[in-house]
Predict the structure of Cytochrome P450.
Amino acid sequence: MKLTPLVTLLGVFLAWATYKIYAGFRSNIAKARKTGYPVLVTPIYPLSPLWLTTRHFLLPILTRLLPERLYASYVFVMTPDWEYHPSPRSHFTRLGSDTFVVASWNGLACYTSDAAVISQVMSRREAFPKDTRQYGILEIFGSNVVTTEGQVWRMHRKVTSASFNERNAGHTFREAVRQTRGMVGGWFSSSFSGSQEEGRRGGENDVEEMTGIITTLEHDTMRWALNIIGYVGFGLKLLWPHESMPVDMDPKLAKYGSLQPPSGYSMTFADSLATVLERIVILLLIPSAVLKRIPERWGSWGAKLHEAWEAKVNYSKYMNAFLTEKVQDIRAGVQEREGMNIMGQLVRSKYDPSSSEKNDGATMKLEDSEIMGNAFIMTLAGHETTANVIHFTIVELAVHPEVQRRVQRDIDAIFGRDSDPETWDYEKSINALLASYIGAVINETLRLIPPVVVTPKRVADTDQWVQDGGQRHQMPAMMPIMPVISAVQRSRRYWPALHDKTTKEGDADDLDEWHPDRWYLPSMSQGQPSTDDEKGEAKQQEENYGGYQGTDTSPTLFRPVRGSFIPFSDGARSCLGRRIAMVEMVAAIAVLFQKYSVELAVDASDEEVQMMVPEQRRHVYAKAQEKAKETVQQARSVVTLKLTGGRHVPVRFVRRGKERFMGNERLC
């Protein structure tokens, strides 16, 4: 029988594909073995963009169809968010190494929870640049300081870092105090839409003692952080739903803070930004030309897709108008107000010749798309990461009532119980706050529930070496390196356990649990010093590119080994705003818990709780604690680590002295 040309062509293609896959496996496995680390061979490359966008529904299908023996050894690395739950360090323990390499036919990837390796990868920027291929999602409005490398990154870093200084940290502290009071005012205000359910006690005085059940804590902390970065960084007065527009508001800026869409817009500025962040994956994967043509009548998904496009259009329109207004102000010589003024700094880099900076003799100027890209990334990084940490910290404090008492004692010692937060002095109080139990609480949340769970790097265009336990390991050129933050920050090699436990599986510790007392234990050894060559290279790579240069923790608390505590990354690419973030968070906790306590909402009415004896209250609260812990474990990475899919932990704030579940040490 004669073969048709089509069958012949198909046969040739299959032969070529088979050879390509075989050759790819052979080459990549050989490279992986040269590293000296354990090797996992996977049929699908876990960092493939196609796999990353389809794994949520493909993986359950594959694991149902295939025998378990075919995938048991490597399936964890194919699973979404394996780096966070249930216990990220367990995978490294099973492999017998803090570093392993994944080899597939079309790629390599190295995952590490070794502090020494992470420190080298973070500090040797030329040898291990940022893997910008994995940050494309953040270029939705233009390239920026997060998504660039090399000389282009240096330009972005120099321009954006100017606003991040100690003077502006003081401005941020004062605005964080004001916005936290606004958030609390909303919770206690009957006009605060969406944050309260039924359950207030009767009587005017009782109403003031307790909020309703707050089911939108994540949303509220997001608004809190957005309001702070909006005002301090961009001069925008964003309002809480129970607030009114100031009469002296600049008309040009009023549209950004309005609670109703202004003329020419279909969404408010805050809502457009929030929706863009929520639907950012949709906006990345589906072209705007397609999104705009999807009718809302296509069910709930049609409405979501259309809303994503509408949000992007509105946000772009707002920011283009803001850019135009800033250019006009600069050209007119309008005096800028105090504050970080991020947008003004970005615009001046292009439109004010007197402020242009030099880079190797060339004038640094950002394009309009880069100004927009950096404005977006500063807004994203300046509010979403901080908001999530505060959200999880409040939840953990609700789960651990005894920790709240420690926090409140330190607040009383620093500020007094009856002082007005508006009078708090930043310079006199910030070091005490960071060194207090408030600082320990924030640090413990950053350790256990970091804003991001991995920080992608890659090997340079030529092979590089890392030192690990006295051995040198060859890292193949262009291989992605994934420091797994949530694993190294729970590693017993670098972190002290408060309590060792014996289980059916053997010895265990409490490093997967939230215990701020850990930060008062003696610091562990800093490890062997680097070689002279490594010190010289690290020093060269860590040239000052602006931003805060101090440590991420108070020197009076536990001092983590370099590379073992990296919630804000490390080295030259560390987060520009990490000092600002810490200032915001300690200010918020101090304001919240100076006069209030937080409790988990329980499965009982207020009247039923009133009638309970202490043992019954302990029982009902213990159930709420377990449920809250399970919910936090379900956090997912969508740009940052957060609760998604409507998951939430319901809480209530009560005035100090009126707590219903904090009177007995046996609660936790």
Observations:
- The radius of gyration is 26 Å.
- DSSP finds 24 helices and 15 strands in the chain.
